[in-house]
Amino acid sequence: MSSIYQKANKAGAFSLRKSKTFAKGRVCKQDGCDVTLSMYNKKEFCFNHSPIDYGRNRGWIDPSKKKS
Fold first, then answer.
1. First-residue to last-residue Cα distance in the chain
2. What pLDDT is stored for residue 38 in this prediction?
3. Is the pLDDT score of 33 beyond 90?
4. Rounded average pLDDT over 32-36
């Protein structure tokens, strides 16, 4: 008789990959801003000075209109 519950190995259930890190001590590129960026933040500007970026939820992007 088989069990209706699935058994799993705890170690296999979670990813053990390390977080990507960037240089420590980086500062926002905006003139006059001295905010130190997190080592986990890949952007060059702090939250207040970063350009607006809207993510794509779904749909197709025309390659001719895509940023290069």
1. 58
2. 95
3. yes
4. 95
pLDDT greater at residue 18 or residue 1:
18
Q: Strand (E) positions, the chain?
A: none
Sign of CA dihedral 23, 27, 30, 35: positive
DSSP three-state, residue 57: coil
Give the CA-trace dihedral at 52, 58, 64, 68, to 10 degrees: 50
Please return the burial class of 37, using the count of CB atoms within 10 Å of its CB with bins 0-12, 13-18 and 19+.
buried
* Domain ranges across the chain: 21-46
Alpha helices in the chain (DSSP H): 10-13
**Greatest Cα pair distance in the chain:** 70
Given phi > 0 = left and psi -120 to 50 = alpha, else beta, which region is 25? left
